[in-house]
Amino acid sequence: MQDSTVKANPTLAHRFKQEAKATLKLGYPLILANLLQMSMAFVDTVMAGNLSTTDLAAVAVGSSILTPAFVFGAGILMAVTPIVSQNFGRRTLDKIGRCVRQALWLSLILSVPTILFLRNAYPILVLMQIDPDVANLAQGYLKAAAWGIPGFFFYLALKHFNEAVSVTRPAMYFALIGLFFNIFWNYTLMFGKFGFPALGAIGTGWATMIVMWVMFICIFIFTLRFKPFKRFQIFSEIRRPDFGYMKDLLKLGLPIGVTFTMEVSLFAIVTLFMGLIGTVAVGAHQIALNLASVTFMVALGLSSAVTVRVGQNLGKGSLTNARFSGYTGIILAVGLMCCTAFMFFTIPELLVSMYTADPDLVELAVQLLLLAAVFQISDGLQVSGAAALRGLKDTRFPMIVNFVAYWLIGLTSGYFLGIYFGWGPKGLWIGLIAGLTAAAILHNIRFWYLSHNKTIEELMEKTS
């Protein structure tokens, strides 16, 4: 397969404009979907806080275990996007249906250990020395939410298929539907409305379970009935699990799952280090991290579009266009994060005041938010660079890079600066910045190297 070049355009600026338009058209629904899904956790927290401090703590503790558990499986299923996008680009449509079917089987298989882990997580709560009342409620929350894991994984498999063939708006609508169901069932089950018993924090877990299945049912019906998808023959007949193909999916997806889990775990450990410093440090860290997490959802949504654009262009036989799509997406992600960095620099007090009026907490949170402004640029570069690499089906190298950058550079330097040398919360955040910056540089160097020094055949042979 020869590398076909793009058609000549009048100017580089025109090419960039066209590619940016295509990327943003794909990306904005995914950004909104991410923000809507994140808002569900916010709703859970606010509504649990209206019950009692114990219920609020139980939801917080339960979520801290639930999130890493499903992030691992969710990362593995992201392998669907580059595989489908490349096959869509080169018009090998029969391989798309096969990929989606096997991803659904893999979703079911991944659900089993995840459910078992969540429903038997009480020993972890004991090791964490959680208050017994909180621990019992948190375990009830996890036992209820666990039954939604298959639905959530099924949803992700179909969502990644949809976005890989440039159909991204449904995910936004389904996330909005999920938010409405989340609010309704939280209200119903937490407070005991419409004849249901008042379950408190455990009711939040059942509401989470319902939302996961509702979102899957929505995307399943859409995928089944959407006429342009008939050509992929996803549900034309029941196929048995193909463990050989699943092995290929895992080969591509497992490094993604490990990468995302390492990132989530990094921030969890930094939060524990904050606990060694004091309550104010933990509170300020949580405020700054929550704001940074919202802006990260923007970059993450856009990065999914970058993976699709790179993968589709590579599938069409143009490494030149794939490279240009990657660079354009990286520039867009950094541009968006520069905007959020500017906001963190200019109005940190206003942003922090949405969370607390405690003067000590405000002062420290503002200092961390100024560091988060620097954090934004690195985060935009690393998430978009890794996404461009996923479009080339390169996932193992980013996993190794993130281990070195996050755990050896970020966590180690953060510990020494924040705890050993006594710099406090700012030292820990400087470590985070160092780790993210190292990852950002290495991911982008890797994309430059692969897109300039490898052939299409070498890049596409990894998984079909």
Question: How does this model look, in words?
Answer:
- The chain has two domains: 28-241, no CATH class; 253-464, no CATH class.
- Helix content is 82%, strand content 0%.
- It is built from 17 helices and no strands.
- Helix 12 (319-346) runs antiparallel to helix 14 (359-391).
- The radius of gyration is 22 Å and the shape is globular.
- Mean pLDDT is 89; it is low at 1-9.
State the domain count.
Answer: 2
Low-confidence stretches: 1-9
Q: Choose one word for the global shape.
A: globular
Strand content: under 5%
Question: What about the largest sheet?
Answer: none
Q: What structural category arises from helix and sheet content?
A: mainly alpha
Q: Total strand count, please?
A: 0
Oligomer: single chain
Radius of gyration of CA atoms, rounded to a whole number: 22 Å
Cα end-to-end separation:
15 Å
Taking all residues together, what is the mean pLDDT? 89
Elements, N to C (H/E): HHHHHHHHHHHHHHHHH
